[in-house]
Design goal:
Number of strands: 17
Strand content: 15-25%
Number of helices: 10
Distance between the termini: 54 Å
Protein name: Metallo-beta-lactamase domain-containing protein
Organism: Pontibacter oryzae
GO molecular function, one term: zinc ion binding
Pfam family, one: Lactamase_B_2
Strand order of the largest sheet: 2-11-12-13-14-15-16
InterPro entries: Metallo-B-lactamas, NAPE-PLD, RibonucZ/Hydroxyglut_hydro
Shape: globular
CATH superfamily: Ribonuclease Z/Hydroxyacylglutathione hydrolase-like
CATH class: Alpha Beta
C-alpha cells in the first residue's frame, strides 16, 4: 500500500496564490493528472465501437448544412468597449477594462478536421492582444499554427496556461512568455485591476501516443471590480461548477461548450450536451449564457444545428434566461455589468 501511494503526488505552482483553503494541488498518479481525484483514461475501444456503430441521426446529420453566421469586420479590434466576440469553436476575443484576451485560438484546419466556417477577419489582423488563455492541450484548443500567428502579430502577448503546458508552448513558439497554474490558482502576470484564475474542468489530455494526461486541463475566471466572466474550456458536467460559484461568486458571463456530445458512450466524460451546459450555468448562478464548441469542426454525431435548436427550446421554457447566440465576429457588449 505504501509503495502504491508513492506514485501519488499533488502538484501546483508554488509561486502562485491558491484560493481553495487547504488545497494541496492537482493530484497526479504515476505522472498523470487525475480528473479531480480519479484517473481518467479514455477507453480506445469506445472509439472502435463508435466507428462500427451507425449513427441513428445519420441522415438528419447529412442533410443538416448549418454553419454559424459570420459578421465580417475588424471594428471590434479597434474599439475600447468591454466585449466578447466569438471567433468559432472555443475561440473568443475578450476585452475587459482595456485588457484583451484570446481563448483557445484555433483558426485553421486541424489534423484531418477542416474548419467549416470562416473568421470575421484574417487571423493576422488580431492585434493588440495581451493574453492567450489556453484551457488544455487538445489540438482543437491549443493549435500550433494559430499560436504562432497570434505571436507573430503580437510580440507582446503572454500565455496563461495549465500545469506542464510549458514544454508544448516552447516547442511551438520558444519566445512566447507563459505562466502555468493549477486548479484554484490565481495568475500573477495580469494587471492589478483584473484577476485571472485557473479553475477545474472535467476532461483529459492527449496530443501524442505517450502523453496521456501529462498536461493539465481546466477553465478560467476573469474578474474585474464589477463583473466575473467564466470560460469553461472543455468539460463534462461535474460538481466543480457549483464549487467555482461557491469560491468566486456568481458568474455574470458564461462561455459554455454545448457541442460534441454524441454518442454519449464516447463523449459524456469529456463534453456536455446543451441540457447539461444549462445545468452547469445554473450552478454557476450565471447571467449571460454564450454557447461555444459547436458548428466549427465536425467532431461528433449530432446534427450541426441541434445544439442551437436545443438551447432555444430550453430558453423558451424559461429555464435559460440569459441566452445570447451571437454570430462569429459579432461583438457582445458587456456594459450592462459595469
Amino acid at each position: 500500500m505504501k509503495q502504491r501511494n508513492n506514485h501519488i503526488r499533488h502538484v501546483k505552482n508554488d509561486r502562485l496564490a491558491t484560493i481553495k483553503p487547504g488545497y494541496k494541488g492537482n493530484k497526479t498518479i504515476k505522472g498523470q493528472f487525475a480528473n479531480g481525484e480519479e484517473l481518467y483514461n479514455p477507453d480506445f475501444t469506445n472509439v472502435i465501437r463508435w466507428q462500427f456503430t451507425q449513427n441513428p441521426q445519420r441522415q438528419e446529420k447529412k442533410q443538416d448544412t448549418y454553419t454559424p453566421p459570420v459578421q465580417q469586420g475588424l471594428d471590434f479590434i479597434h474599439d475600447d468597449k468591454d466585449m466578447v466576440v466569438w471567433l468559432g469553436h472555443a475561440s473568443f476575443f475578450i476585452r475587459l477594462q482595456g485588457i484583451t484576451f484570446l481563448t483557445d485560438p484555433a483558426f485553421f484546419d486541424i489534423s484531418f478536421m477542416k474548419r467549416k466556417v470562416g473568421l470575421p477577419c484574417q487571423p493576422e489582423a488580431l492585434r493588440n492582444i495581451n493574453f492567450i488563455l489556453l484551457s488544455h492541450g487538445h489540438r482543437d484548443h491549443l493549435d500550433k499554427k494559430s499560436i504562432q500567428t497570434v505571436f507573430s502579430s503580437n510580440p507582446q502577448v503572454k500565455a496563461l496556461a495549465p500545469l506542464q503546458a510549458g514544454n508544448l508552448l516552447r516547442g511551438i513558439e520558444p519566445q512566447l512568455p507563459y505562466q502555468e497554474a493549477g486548479w484554484f490558482q490565481k495568475y500573477d502576470l495580469v494587471p492589478d485591476h483584473l484577476e485571472v484564475y485557473f479553475m477545474p474542468a472535467s476532461h483529459w489530455h492527449r496530443r501524442g501516443v505517450t502523453d496521456v494526461n501529462k498536461v493539465l486541463w481546466g477553465s478560467f475566471v476573469i474578474k474585474t471590480p464589477t463583473m466575473a466572466l467564466y470560460f469553461a474550456g472543455d468539460s463534462a458536467f461535474a460538481p466543480h461548477f457549483a464549487e467555482i460559484e461557491d469560491l468566486l461568486g456568481p458568474m455574470d458571463v458564461c462561455l459554455m461548450p454545448v457541442g460534441a456530445y454524441k454518442p454519449s458512450f464516447l463523449m459524456s466524460k469529456s463534453h456536455m450536451n446543451p441540457h447539461e451546459a444549462v445545468k452547469a450555468y445554473n450552478h454557476l448562478r450565471g447571467g449571460m449564457f454564450i454557447p461555444m464548441h459547436y458548428g466549427t469542426f465536425d467532431l461528433s454525431d449530432e446534427p450541426a444545428s441541434e445544439p442551437v435548436r436545443l438551447l432555444e427550446q430550453i430558453a423558451a421554457t424559461g429555464a435559460l434566461q440569459g441566452l445570447r447566440i451571437p454570430a462569429i465576429g459579432e461583438p457582445v457588449l458587456l456594459h450592462d455589468f459595469a
